[in-house]
Every structure is written in C-alpha cells, then in structure tokens.
Amino acid sequence: MQTFTVVAATGSDARAWDGVVEAVSSATLTAQTSGRVQAVQVDVNDRVAAGAVLLRLSAVEQQSAASTARAQLRAAAAAAAEAEQNYRRYAALASGQFVSRAQIDQARAARDSAVAARDAAQAGVAQAAQQADYTVVRAPFAGVVSRRLVEPGESVAPGQPLLDMHAPGAMRVEVQVPQSIADQVRAMPRAEVRYGDGRSVEAAGVVVHPQADPVTHSVAVRVLLPQAGEARMPGTTAKVVFPIVAGAAMGPAQAQVRIPASAIVQRGELSAVYVLQGKRLLLRQLRLGERDGDQQDVISGLRAGDVVARDPVAATRAIAEQRRASGAEHE
Q1: pLDDT of residue 329
Q2: In angstroms, rounded to a whole number, what is the distance separating the alpha carbons of residues 93 and 86?
Q3: What residues in the chain have per-residue pLDDT under 70?
Q4: DSSP 145-168
Q5: How wide is the angle at C-alpha 50 spanned by C-alphas 49 and 53, nearest 5°?
Q6: How far apart, in whole angstroms, are the C-alpha atoms of residue 76 and residue 116?
Q7: Cα 88 from Cα 92, distance rounded (Å)
Q8: Choosing a second label site near 303 at 20 to 30 A (CA), which of 185, 257, 296, 328?
Q9: Given this model, what pLDDT does residue 253 score?
Q10: Gap between the Cα atoms of 313 and 4, Å rounded
Q11: Which pLDDT score is estimated for 60?
Q12: What secondary structure does DSSP assign to 263-314, as a single string?
C-alpha cells in the first residue's frame, strides 16, 4: 500500500475560489397592488431608461376606489365647512350672551371633528391615487431586463415578482473563504478574476465582510470588477484568485495543507482519509477547502507529518487483512 507524508505549504501561493458574476445594481420588480396584467411592454434583453413604463395592470378597482375616496373627501369638506360656519355663528352670539358656554364648546368640538374627518378623507384620496399609480410599473433605474415572469392576462397579487432587471455597468463576484484566509485577504486586498474562456482581469476592489457566517464559519469577500473593457453577464462563472502567503497567521499544527483528491474517501457528507498511526490505519474526518485540479485543500483534520494512504481502496483492503490476521492470531 502506497502512502505519502503531508507537508505544510510554505512561501507565496495563489488560492482560488469559484464564484458567480452579479450586477451591483439589480432589482426584482414585484406587484404592489392586485390586478390583471394588461400589457408587458418589454422583453428579455431590452434596454430601458429610468422611469420607462415596463408593465401595466388593470386599474378598474383602483380607479373605482379613487373615485369613491374623492367623493368622500367632497362630503367631508362640505361637512367641515358647515361646522366652521356654525361655530362662527355661535362665537358671534356668545359676545351678547345669547348662547351658553356649553353650546360654544359643542360647536367647537363639532368643527374640530369635521376638520379631522376631512383630513382623513384627503389622506384616503392620496392612498387610493397611489394604488392606481401602482398599476403602472416603471423602471427604477436605467438597465437591462434580465427576466420576464408574467404574461398578459395573468392575475397578480401584491408581492408577486413581475420582472428582473440589472444595470450592466458595475459588476462584482462574491466568494466565501475560510476564516483563516480572510485576515490575509483583508491585509492584502488584491485579486485576479479568471473567466471560463481563459480571460482574466485584475479586481477593481476587494471588500471583506466584517463577520463570519455562523453556520459555515466562512467569510464573504466581495470582488469588484473593472468597468472598462468587455462587460460580463450576470450569472457567468468566474474563479477569484487571491495572493496568499501559505501558513501565515496560522500555527504550525494548523497550517492549511493540500493533498491529492484521489486520497479522499467520500461517504455521504463525510470527507475523510486513511491515516497511518504506527501499524494501524485509522479513518480521519476532514474539513475541505477549495479544489484545484487534482489537488484538494484541507482546512482541518490533517497536519504536516501525517502519513496518509494514497489509495483508499488499497487502504480498505489492508484494514481487512489486518483484521483477518488479528483474528487468526487469537484462534
């Protein structure tokens, strides 16, 4: 059975993580009122200006509600005007003591109540007008329509997605890196972005998030792409390469190592290797990082000096032979 000794990486190294290009400015436009789609005036890949009409919904219910609100406002305004005149008449009579103080207070209260009802009706008109405006969906910024989710004739409810769009200028790639690497990236915020077609660009900026994910214990790094040159479409895969000093900021026992991927045993979600301790082979669980070709980064589970079986199948056979030999000795 062949084995190899784990060696900690030293010196400068380039570490890569896979990511997806995404637009800095993107939006999913959703319905803000209910209705039926009357017309969709754009399609996928259409360029639109800020404020351009993208989609129209039926506005029968909204216009009816707006008309009702305006009628209620007129009635409330008339009642408020009448209450104001009554109060003025009572106030004029009060100087000659023709009306009681209680009658004056009642007239003032009736006026104030009518004014409040008028203001509420005015707010109702504004709300109804806003609901009517929601039946016309406009572009929040200049960009490209990337997805169309509804067709004319469909009924939609508030919150239902209608269209996706993005601004084609500023793009970025976000990747998740181990905590042990995040500090090095933060100290040396440089990166190279490599695309699937072989082209590569230097990142315009690197932003490391200030906290780690509590579930995966990884840190998000946002890599900004330069706007000059050919723009990449959102969703394009890319590999982000960071210049990393291997072993820096880690103790010798925790230095990240790289082993052949063929030595790893995958059992469901468990990744492990067979480690030789003395004359015994033991299965040890690993926490893996990124893979580069036939080499696999190991975040934890191995350290420099560990002896690992190169072929897991041969290691399994060796363990079986050890067990048979051990059973024969006991007989």
Answers
A1: 56
A2: 11
A3: 8-14, 228-231, 245-256, 327-331
A4: EEEE---TT-EE-TT-EEEEEE-S
A5: 80
A6: 9
A7: 6
A8: 185
A9: 38
A10: 15
A11: 84
A12: G-EEETTEEEEEEEETTEEEEEE-EEEEEETTEEEEEES--TT-EEES-HHH
The amino acid at residue 253 is: A
Q: Among 70, 59, 75, which residue's Cα sits nearest to residue 117?
A: 75
How far apart CA 7 and CA 5 sit, in angstroms, is 6
Burial 113-134 (b: 16+ CB within 10 A, else e): ebbebbeebbebbeebbebbeb
**Alpha carbon distance 213, 227 (integer Å):** 29
Residue 171: count other Cβ atoms within 10 Å of its Cβ: 25
Q: What is the DSSP letter of 8?
A: B
Check: CB of residue 88 under 8 Å from CB of residue 164: no
Question: With contact defined as beta carbons under 8 Å apart, do 241 and 192 qualify?
Answer: yes
Query: What confidence score (pLDDT) does residue 79 get?
Result: 93
pLDDT recorded at residue 222: 93
| C-alpha torsion 269→274→278→280, nearest 10 | 90
Q: Is the pTM of this model over 0.70?
A: no
Question: Residue 46: exposed, middle, or buried by beta-carbon count in 10 A (0-12, 13-18, 19+)?
Answer: middle
The predicted pLDDT at position 181 comes to: 84
Q: How many CB atoms lie within 10 A of CB 83?
A: 21
Rounded to whole angstroms, the Cα distance separating 21 from 166 reads: 12
